[in-house]
Amino acid sequence: MPALVSSPDTAPQADRDLVEAVLTGRRGAFEQLVRTYQGLCWRIVDDIVRHPDDTRELCQEVFLRIHRSLHQYRGDSALKSWVAQVACSVALRHIERKRLPLADIREDEDGLAPAERVSDGFDLEAATADEDMQAHLHAAIDALPPLQRMLLTLYHLEEMPIGDIARSTGLAEGTIKSHLFRSRKRLREILEARIGVPA
């Protein structure tokens, strides 16, 4: 489980101001923090847990933990990355307690993806631009193991840099890149099988 630490990059002033407002007890500040990051928290936890009741409960736990430990945030990284770190930690601990598989181990051992690569050159976004294709894409993402779903969300939807994802998840950057490569390859295979997306 990753420790609550910040990255070497400096946080925006707005992040530091919001944290200061929460820590000094300014009215509505914590509610603002929750509103700003509840979508991020839900996506991360739900990608791992895939059970709405558990996701709701775990998101509450995430924000309780943030409230208790916000004094540890030093402003060295974006608050978004720090919140993601807490959400990952809570969700991964839940998976460990339930003894659920996080990733397909066989896939990790197949040697398909060099650690330095993230994309296989396939433009997944362009291939799934219309609404019907989007539905197929979401179904294909749902078929991935929890860890891959979460990493795709952080990298593609939240547009977090690999370094921030590594700090948030406690995974090595090479491991993250390999998972992203394999996930995109698997999505491509699923889409090709379902709707004949060209190679």
Helix-strand layout with pairing:
Blueprint: H1 13-23, H2 29-49, H3 52-69, H4 79-98, H5 105-108, H6 124-127, H7 131-142, H8 146-157, H9 162-169, H10 173-195
Helix pairs in contact: 1-2, 2-3, 2-4, 2-8, 3-4, 4-9, 7-10, 8-10
List the defining traits of the structure above.
2 domains, mainly alpha, elongated, Butyryl-CoA Dehydrogenase, subunit A, domain 3, Rna Polymerase Sigma Factor, Chain: A, 199 residues, 10 helices
CATH class identity of the largest domain: Mainly Alpha
CATH superfamily of the largest domain: PhyR, sigma-like (SL) domain
| Order of helical and strand elements | HHHHHHHHHH
Structural category is mainly alpha
Give the oligomer, counting copies of the same chain as homo and different chains as hetero. Answer: single chain
Supply the number of helical segments: 10
Walk me through what this model shows.
The protein is mainly α and 199 residues long. It folds into two domains: 13-98, RNA polymerase sigma factor, region 2, helix turn helix motif (Rna Polymerase Sigma Factor, Chain: A, Orthogonal Bundle), CATH 1.10.1740.10; 105-195, PhyR, sigma-like (SL) domain (Butyryl-CoA Dehydrogenase, subunit A, domain 3, Up-down Bundle), CATH 1.20.140.160. 67% of the residues lie in helices and 0% in strands. The chain has ten helices and no strands. It has helices spanning 13-23, 29-49, 52-69, 79-98, 105-108, 124-127, 131-142, 146-157, 162-169, 173-195. α2 (29-49) packs across α4 and α8 (146-157) crosses α10. It is elongated, with a radius of gyration of 18 Å. It starts with 12 loop residues before the first helix and ends with a helix. The model is unreliable at 1-8 and 104-118 (pLDDT under 50).
